[in-house]
Structures are given as structure tokens and as C-alpha cells.
Amino acid sequence: FQKALVKAVLIDNKFQIEGFPTVCLIPQVKNVFEQEGFSRQKRGYRNINDIEVNMSDPLFTKQWYLINTGQADGTPGLDLNVAEAWQLGYTGKGVTIAIMDDGIDYLHPDLASNYNADASYDFSSNDPFPFPRYTDDWFNSHGTRCAGEVSAAANNNICGVGVAYNSKVAGIRMLDQPFMTDIIEASSISHMPQVIDIYSASWGPTDDGKTVDGPRELTLQAMADGVNKGRGGKGSIYVWASGDGGSYDDCNCDGYASSMWTISINSAINDGRTALYDESCSSTLASTFSNGRKRNPEAGVATTDLYGNCTLRHSGTSAAAPEAAGVFALALEANPNLTWRDMQHLSVLTSKRNQLHDEVHQWRRNGVGLEFNHLFGYGVLDAGGMVKMAKEWKTVPERFHCVAGSVQEPHKIQSGNKLVLAIDTEACQGKDNFVRYLEHVQAVVTVNASRRGDLNINMTSPMGTKSILLSRRPRDDDSKVGFDKWPFMTTHTWGEDPRGTWVLEVGFQGEEPQRGVLKEWTLMLHGTQSAPYIDQIVRDYQSKLAMSKKEELEEELDEAVERSLKSLLSKNN
After folding, report:
1. Strand, helix or coil for residue 342
2. CA-to-CA distance for 52 and 127, rounded, in angstroms?
3. Where are the beta strands (DSSP E) in 418-571?
4. 88-103 per-residue burial string, b: 16 or more CB within 10 A, e: under 16
5. Which of the four, 110, 154, 331, 542, has the lowest number of CB atoms within 10 Å?
6. Cα distance between residue 520 and residue 517, in whole Å
7. Backbone torsions φ then ψ of 38, nearest 5 degrees
């Protein structure tokens, strides 16, 4: 009976078993309940129709970076979480974003209603009409595509939807001339800083793996004025694409992306992997999305294109920076009083690892428990999380700068031997410019090498956080210029206490033996004297560590008891 496959019918709490003439009483059965079927679903999977965001725009369902339900073989849930921000009522209203690029097709029907003509200008042709110059190959479509990611109108049956679809977009045409000048860059970056809130830049020095370049004097001054005086003193927000040089390049060699005054944004593809063109560096703050690796035509970024067209093929970190600008526009609508530094703090605190994975660099936690990655920064921007935190955010305390120490005497570097230098600092404690909680850290380095591209520079903070300041760049053959007072920057020590010993390690990677001389290392600390939220993060982190250590000890104790019991049993046997 126990092994047979039988059918039974319940009659008055007794079983009538098929094939048996009488009703059988089974004393072991105390109660009988009829089982009803109900639903269970795999967590993480989202159907776009189940999310209460209804858009008539034909490309909306293909904009996986907004709401990722697994389109184009992507990873469900891996997106900017804009749906939550939109459902809270934030769509970028009252915020103006400038696209500094090759112009904007402001006649495009998906952009025209959100175009801010008064804040736009053409610095390539010196007129107020930044329309892209025509080419047969549509080479100047870059700015129009970026503009659509930010401010494409919603529910108009055209193309897709912008991250901040009720924001205003300004066109600053400044890339389309035979060569760049300092005055064109400076004029663009400082154009109407009381009207424009966010400047999005998807350009920089050549991503050839051998260029070391950054802003010149006028542009540096314009950026400094922007963060200090823009937006009525709250500071212009500069969003920068980290670069498309891939593993051959390092974005710390790009003086725009590695500037403290910019928010450097990298990209991930729709399944959470790095794009092959992604550059890594310690100055990257956060990430958004672009395409790469996948051949699926819908794995690219869907947005507006020239002459009223739409595209599914926008790509590169060029696509990543405007997405970030859109998220920041949502945060500014939630709290117009946010400063440029507030936006950086919010990016650090609300960005998430989500399902991003880097095959080369592991995710780590810094000295106060903030999780970061050398390529993705603090993770992917979370629009919903950012607007919720922005609503209640109190402006961060005053920022201070401290020259923590300097090594000025020359030190030789040779292949096979790492040069290790240390600076002990009190971070200007006892002075007006004391830095207790870090934001940005700069290692200003002067170094020459027989092959600059083989140089590798790491720096470790007193709290044990290691930042890779410079990775090997195999295409960089420079043997003369080197780095001259170059400010390598890291954001990975955010929130840490800088007091103690900082260690710089300089060496060579590569097959051929190299030699060099480090002539200077100056440590610059930037941060605040108070940051209450950091103290809470530290307490939470220490609590988690204590709990995990307790669990480890309990596991060790269990294993020890088990070993002892096994030993006793074997002796008794």
C-alpha cells in the first residue's frame, strides 16, 4: 500500500481507496486539508506592463536603461530606477541642462518643446543657433542623441523618453571646428551659469592610450568660477564622460574627467558587464549605461537622431554622461538648493552595486564601509533613491583644503623594485583648514620614465584603502615628458579620516626593463570638518562587521565541537 500508486476519495474524514471494497480508516491521518493553488514569482523579473509608467512613445519599451525588464537579453532590474522618481512626481521640471557638443537639432519634434533657445549658443560659428553642420555621414549627430537622453518629451508618439522629460535642454555647439581653443572651452563652460544648472560633456582629450592632457588656464578658471559662483553660488554641476580608451587607457590621464569639479561617469552594458571601451580610474564617481559587446541591435541606447529621426544605436560613455545629467536634474527638482558638492555626496551615498560586475577589479569597501569599484565608482545611479534622499538633504558643511605633506627629493625607480614612499600627516589638525572627513584626494606627481606607459602608481590611505592612481598604458611610449605636477585624483577614500600614514607605491609593469625618477609627490586633502552621516555609516558598518565576526566565531566554535565529538566517537569505537 505504501509503495503503490493509488487514488483516494475523502468521505467523512475517511479515505475510500480505489480498488478496496471498504472505507479504510488510517489512524496516522489526524487532519485533511484540501490544497488550493496560488502564485509565486521569481524576484527580480519585472514586466514593463506591471510598472505603472505608461508612455505612448514607440521606443520607450526599448529604453532598457530606464526600465530594464530583460529587453535585448539584458538583466531585469538593472537600470536607473527612474520609474520610482517619476512616480514620486519628479520629471526635471524647472531644470536646464546644457549639452556641450556638436550642436542640437532643436527642430526635432521630440526636443522642440523642451528646447531652451535663450540659454543656447554656437561657439563654433559665433551665433545663437547651435544647429549641427550637415555631413553626408551624419557625423554631427552626437549632441542631438545626447539631448534626447536627457530631455526628449514624453507621450508624444515620437522616439523615446528623456530621463528628465520635463526639463529644458540647451545646445552649446563647441566641438565642430578644425581645432579646439582654450577660449572656446572656457566660454562654453561658463555660458549663462545663472540659467544653466547642469553641463553635460561627452568629450575630452584623445582616447588613444598615450595622451596626457586636460583643461588649460582659461578653462580651469571658468570651471572654478562655475562651481563657486554658478547657480547663485550653489555651483554649476559639470558631468563628464570618463572616456572610451578601454583597457589601453586610464581616465586619470584625462584632466577633465579626473577633476574634482566634475562628476566623472562610466558605463555598463545591459547585463551589468563593463563595455570593452570603458576606461578605469580612481576618479570615477559613478556609472550609468551604454552599449557594447552585444550584437543585439536593441542593446544600444535608444534616443533622438538628426532631422527628426530616432536611433537605437547611441553608444560609448558619450551616452552615459547625459543619463547622469538627467538623474541629477530629477534630484535638483526635488531640492533646488543642492550645491555641486551635495550632488557628489548624493551620488556616493545612493549609487548601488546592483548587478554590475567587473572581471578585472573586485568590489571593495573603503575605511568607512562605502562599497566601490575601480571601474564603476560607487555603482550605478539610482534616480529613485537619489530624489528621496535629496528631498530631506541638508547642505554639506564648508569644504577645506590641506597640503598634507610633500616629498621633494628625487627617487629612482627600476623594473623589479617598487619605490615605496610615505607621508605622515595630521591633516592640518589645529588649523583653520583641518580636514577630518575626506571628499577628494590628489597626489600631485612629477615623474619621468624611459617608458611612461609602463608606470604603475598606487596609493594607500591610513584607513587601508588602496587606490590605483595609474594603470599600465601599453600604447604610451613617451620617454621625455612624463608627468609634470600631474594631479592624480581618487574618490575611493570618501568619508575617511585622513590622519595617519599615506603610502605611495611606484613601479613598472611590462616585459622590457625600464627606469625612471620620481621628483615630487605632494599630497592634497579636500573635505570637511564635520559629516554626521559618515559617523552613522561607520557605526552601521562596524555593527555589520561585528555581526559577521560573531557568526564566523560561532561557525568556528561549531566546527571545533564537531571535530571534538568525532574524535571522542572514534576513540569510543
Report:
1. helix
2. 43
3. 419-425, 437-449, 455-460, 466-470, 483-490, 500-508, 515-528
4. eebbbeebbbbbbbbb
5. 542
6. 9
7. -145, 175
**Residue whose entry in the numeric block shows the C-alpha cell 608627468:** 483
N-to-C CA span, the chain: 40
Angle, CA of 442, 445 and 449, to the nearest 5°:
145
Concatenated DSSP letters of 399-428: PEEEEEEEE-S-EEEETTB-EEEEEEE-TT
d(CA 223, CA 226): 5
Q: Taking the CA atoms of the chain, what radius of gyration do you get in angstroms?
A: 29
Report d(CA 341, CA 237) in Å as an integer: 9
- Give the other-Cβ count within 10 Å of 540's Cβ: 12
Q: Which pLDDT tens digits describe the chain residue by residue (573 residues)?
A: 344 455 555 555 555 555 555 555 566 666 776 777 655 443 344 555 566 788 999 999 999 999 999 999 999 999 999 999 999 999 999 999 999 999 999 999 999 999 999 999 999 999 999 999 999 988 999 999 999 999 999 999 999 999 999 999 999 999 999 999 999 999 999 999 999 999 999 999 999 999 999 999 999 999 999 999 999 999 999 999 999 999 999 999 999 999 999 999 999 999 999 988 999 999 999 999 998 777 788 889 999 999 999 999 898 888 999 999 999 999 999 999 999 999 999 999 999 999 999 989 999 999 999 999 999 999 999 999 999 999 999 999 999 999 999 999 999 999 999 999 999 999 999 999 999 999 999 999 999 999 999 999 999 999 999 999 999 999 999 999 999 999 999 999 999 999 999 999 999 999 899 999 999 999 999 999 998 788 888 788 778 777 776 676 667 666 766 676 566 566 655
- Closest residue by Cα to residue 335 from 289, 297, 391, 274: 391
Residues 558, 563, 565, 566, CA torsion sign? positive
Grid cell locating 363: 568590489
Grid cell listed for 68: 530594464
Structure letter (DSSP) for residue 337: T
CB 29 within 8 A of CB 269: no
Task: Say what the pTM is.
Answer: 0.88
Report the catalytic residues: 101, 142, 318
Rounded to the nearest 10 degrees, what angle do helices 340-350 and 383-391 cross at? 130
Quote the CA–CA distance of 17 and 8 in Å, as a whole number.
4
Closest Cα partner for 115 from 78, 176, 170? 170
Alpha helices in 302-411 (DSSP H): 317-334, 340-350, 383-391
Q: How far apart are CA 403 and CA 406, in angstroms?
A: 8
| Total number of residues shown for the chain | 573
Is beta strand 198-201 parallel, antiparallel or unpaired with respect to 237-241?
parallel
DSSP tag of 310: E
Phi, psi of 266, rounded to the nearest 5 degrees: -105, -175
User: How far is residue 12's CA from residue 23's CA, in Å, rounded to a whole number?
Assistant: 10
Are the C-beta atoms of 447 and 516 separated by less than 8 Å?
yes
